[in-house]
UniProtKB/TrEMBL annotation:
Coiled-coil boundaries: none
Database matches in InterPro entries: EF-hand-dom_pair, EF_Hand_1_Ca_BS, EF_hand_dom, S100/CaBP7/8-like_CS, S100_Ca-bd_sub, S100Z
Assigned keywords, A-Z: Calcium, Metal-binding, Repeat
CDD domains associated with the record: S-100Z
Domain EF-hand: 93-128
Keyword Membrane applies: no
Secretion signal span: none
Name the record gives this protein: Protein S100
Stretches the record annotates as Disordered: 1-24
Organism: Xiphophorus maculatus (Southern platyfish)
Amino acid sequence: MTTRKHKTGDRPPGSFSFPSKPPAARHLSRILTRGRQELFSSRMPSQLEGAMGALITVFYNYSGNDGDKHKLNKGELKELLHSELSDFLTSQKDPMLVEKIMNDLDTNKDNEVDFNEFVVLVAALTVACNDFFQEQNKNAK
Ligand SMILES: [Ca+2]
Ligand SMILES: [Ca+2]
């Protein structure tokens, strides 16, 4: 009888796990290519379009400071996390947190976080926030 000890996808407790590909990303990019004309016309952006624009702006505010202008190195990622997600960071006591986040986000292992990798973090945190609020709602009833 053989006992298989190793399980695939096992992670040490406390580490982050992000989906490797944002769902429906390809479909979305097709829509975007078609809708780009309308998206960047002079009308006021919708709330969601504004949020998407803000996401892009925030990323490039930090990615352009050092080295590759289109990617966040570890220093830039740390700066972004501390400035833009300070509440999230202070609630986590792990001193290796930035390293762990960097490791989990950097799916192509080039030691940089590009925009595609960055949005996975935002999506995962947004999902976590939504779960939290749903839980709060449930408890309030
Ligand atoms: Ca950079
Ligand atoms: Ca990368």
